[in-house]
Amino acid sequence: MAIGPGDTKIVGAAKSVWNQAKGKPYTWGGHTTNGFDCSWFTIYVLQQAYPSRGFTFMTAASIFSSPSFTAVKGNPEIGDLICFPQGPDVPHDHVGIVYDTTHWIGSQSSTGVALVSLNDFFWSKKPHFFIRLLKAIS
User: Fold this and answer.
1) In terms of CB atoms within 10 Å, which end of the chain has fewer, N or C?
2) CA angle centred on 94, ends 133 and 53, rounded to 5°
3) pTM for this prediction
4) pLDDT per position in the chain (138 positions), as tens?
5) What ranges in the chain are assigned the alpha helix state H?
C-alpha cells in the first residue's frame, strides 16, 4: 500500500501528543495525556492540529459519521484516520491516525498510545477503512 504525503499538521500533533503520553496506560474514556482511549486520543490530536475547527466528538462513532471527514478512495495519506469496524451492526470500534508510510498511531488497551505497524499481525487482519479530514474548511 502506498501512503501519500497527506496532512503533516495532524501527524506533527500526533507525535507531540505521543511524546507527552508515552508510558501512560490506556484509559477508557480518558481524554488527557495522563491516559487516552482511542477516540479521545484522536480527538485530542485533531484539537491540537486544528484548534479553530471545534472538534468535540465524543466517540469513534461520531468521528466516523462526521461531515468533516470523507471516505478515502485509493491509497491513504499520512494524517488520515484508520477506522476499524466491529461488524455490520456496529460499524465503529477503534480509530487511529496514519503516522507514516508503515505505521499508524493510536491508544490501544494493550499499549496505551503507541505506533502500530500497518502490517501488524493482529490489526492488519481486522477489516478497516480510512477517512480524511476535509481541508476546504480548515
Assistant:
1) N
2) 30
3) 0.89
4) 555 568 899 999 999 999 999 999 999 989 899 999 998 999 999 999 998 887 776 666 777 778 888 889 888 999 999 998 876 666 678 999 999 989 999 999 999 999 999 999 999 998 889 999 987 444
5) 8-21, 38-49, 60-64
